[in-house]
Amino acid sequence: MTRYSTVPLLLFTLLTISNVVLGIKFDLVATPSNALSPKCVSQFVSNGTLVVVTIKVGIGYNQRIDAEITDNSSSHNEYGRKRDIEGETRMPFTTHTDADISVCLTNILDDGFRPDPKYHRTIDLDIDVGAEAIDFSALVQAEKLKPMEAELRKLEQVVQEIVDEMEYLRRREARMRDTNESTNERVKWFSLGSIFVLVGLGGWQIFYLKKFFQKKRLID
């Protein structure tokens, strides 16, 4: 195998390892509107990342599927909300902060029907993050890219995501280091203060006991 023939294999390997995709399939049992039990799927996503959530809902009667996408940051950002999902729906968005993205689904049973396990709908949920969320087929058609150029463009996006992730880890490590240094500094001053207090308390006890014994004429 020549050096040039290994390039596509290396590209394919890097793309396979680096892409971030979360796919899950499950049955969501219907519950009355006054006893909702959301099913949530979470994934950590860094700031400024493109995310595409694809929800495929199976056939089911007397039921309504609702979806809500939020994060667990202090701002509690909401990225999308859809009611009465039928078939397939896509919800693209770009994250506003480093946080866990939660996709919560509810299956609401219509009024007049009693809860029963037979009332359920199959959910096929895919969460594409970063390079995997980009529609490269449309990009290829728009820019008339060759297959190798398209793979290189995709690899460029993946490498950029890796660089951004490393930068995020570097910032996080710097924050943790600053926190550790601040904690160590506070512990040092607390220890010194404790020593001064103990020395002062010991000196006061000696002085007090000396005065006490002198008053009792036990010592000169």
UniProtKB/TrEMBL annotation:
Family annotation (Pfam families): EMP24_GP25L (PF01105)
GO annotations of cellular component type: membrane
Domain GOLD: 38-129
Record keywords: Coiled coil, Membrane, Signal, Transmembrane, Transmembrane helix
InterPro entries: Emp24-like, GOLD_dom
Keyword Signal attached: yes
Residues annotated as transmembrane: 189-209
Secretion signal span: 1-23
Cell compartment(s), UniProt: Membrane
Keyword Transferase assigned: no
Topology of the protein relative to the lipid bilayer: Single-pass type I membrane protein
Stretches of the chain forming a coiled coil according to its record: 145-172
Top-level lineage group: Eukaryota
Family: Belongs to the EMP24/GP25L family.
Protein name, as recorded: Endoplasmic reticulum vesicle protein 25
Organism: Rhizophagus clarus
